[in-house]
Amino acid sequence: MKKVSIIGAGMTKFGERWDKSLKELVVEAGIKALVDSNLSGNEIEAVYGGTMAAGRLVGQEHVGALLADAMGLNPLPSIRVEAACASGGMALREAYMAIASGYHDVVVVGGVEKMTDVSTGDATIALAGAGDVEWEYFSGATFPAVYALLAKKHMAEFGTTEEQMAQVAVKNHENGSKNEYAQYQNKITLEQVMKSKPIAEPLKILDCSPITDGAAALVLASSDIARKYSDTPIEISGVGMASDTLPLHDRASLIELNATKVAAEKAYRQAGVTPKEINFAEVHDCFTIAELLAVEDLGFFPKGKGGPATQEGETALNSKISINTSGGLKACGHPVGATGVKQAVEATWQLRGEGKGRQVDNAEIGLTHNVGGSGATAIVHIMKRVN
Amino acid sequence: MVEGIASIWRNIPQRYRLEGNYCENCGTAYFPPRVVCVKCRRQGKLKTKIFCGKGKIETYTKVYTAPTGLELEVPYYLAIINLSEGPSILGQLVETDSEKIKIGSNVEFIFRKMREDGEEGLIQYGYKFKIV
Predict the structure, then answer these.
(1) What is the set of domains in chain A, with CATH numbers?
(2) Where are the beta strands (DSSP E) in A145-213?
(3) Does the beta carbon of A373 lie under 8 angstroms from any beta carbon of chain B?
(4) Is A338 helix (H, G, I), strand (E, B) or coil?
(5) Is residue A85 annotated as a catalytic residue, yes or no?
(6) Do B103 and A152 touch (CB under 8 A)?
(7) Buried-most residue among A277, A321, A336, B58 (CB within 10 A)?
């Protein structure tokens, strides 16, 4: 199997981008990644794009063809992949495999979602499709409600508190305030989170990631030619993906996301590292409880200790392990199909030392963790600096 | 959500009377019914089973922001219920004093209206649960 490196990364500003269409967003991110990679463009062999619900949100399907066309890359093969909120991570994995297998040498990966062209109600319906529409949504299970069920279970089992969950939002807004691409660059207080509007008990509006427009893109190359284009290629040293039951109620356990655990084990094994060696991670905090589950299931903290660890500041920037330096889904925003790619963009910047005001000290190894639905898909990538 | 007339009709046995199935080979019960036993796969032998609808609350939430079509229902309680006969199910908790809603509380199935598609549209029925 060939080794694979990231040689270019770029993203749009995340937020309510009323001025830009899906096509314009993804081209902007793609061009930034290509400029960053020093490619002329003729070296590219294929395009991989992740988007969850372009059909529901802007009425556009056939996004693979749209991507190649919009970026001026016809007649290259162009593939859309979909795994709900993990669509971006899955696009990255597909692109990784295309190079690792030796089939391609240079490919572009994009992730995009344009969510604010429809009402919040319609966006909620589109997102509910990440779960089981017949047996969850029919009974009134919105996406926040499904994570609220996980939160209530975690609280009952481990004594996790609403304040501990709220601290995830406070910390991620703190990080987001240092990220010029973040949707929310304002800091918030614990009290503001606790007093915010209830959505699905115990989750409040400030426990939830927002509805966002945005795109992110990467250029991947076989590591044996990566140095031709980049002085600082970032190697993808481990990849893991796992699946679980689509509806939450069919899971064997509700105190963890088993798909995250299995995906992480695979990625750690391939990379030959342990959770202790990871300097920073971008994890899937679609709701604050999801970050607590992630830091436990990825092995950074023992099961049930994610809440206390967060409360004690052990996941803040340059603490025990820096979690969600970009601001995470909570503050940077969550254009669902773009998120998995954006996480890898942030990891690339951190590993190159381009983290600006949010740089992790001595960043050598980073991890990204992208979840689809309530955990029916989980994808983990481990990346490292190549010295 | 795409709920055409045929898809509503197709799910009547499950939604009106909790019809699922179980595998004669390994004994695992499924709700909703599965096409293939996930444990035995092709060696499995699935038979119809109607669940009694009694169970315990494993986790619950009170929903304040409803999806389109359920706006008038808020706030409503949702729970994951471990049915006494095996599988777990997600459903609304109704007709219940909120103080009695706790993890571990016993519940039972009730047949209720779920939603209606405008004044002249289809009315959908299904399962909800109440504390016993």
Answers:
(1) 4-117+212-234 (3.40.47.10), 120-210+236-385 (3.40.47.10)
(2) 198-200, 203-204
(3) no
(4) helix
(5) yes
(6) yes
(7) A336
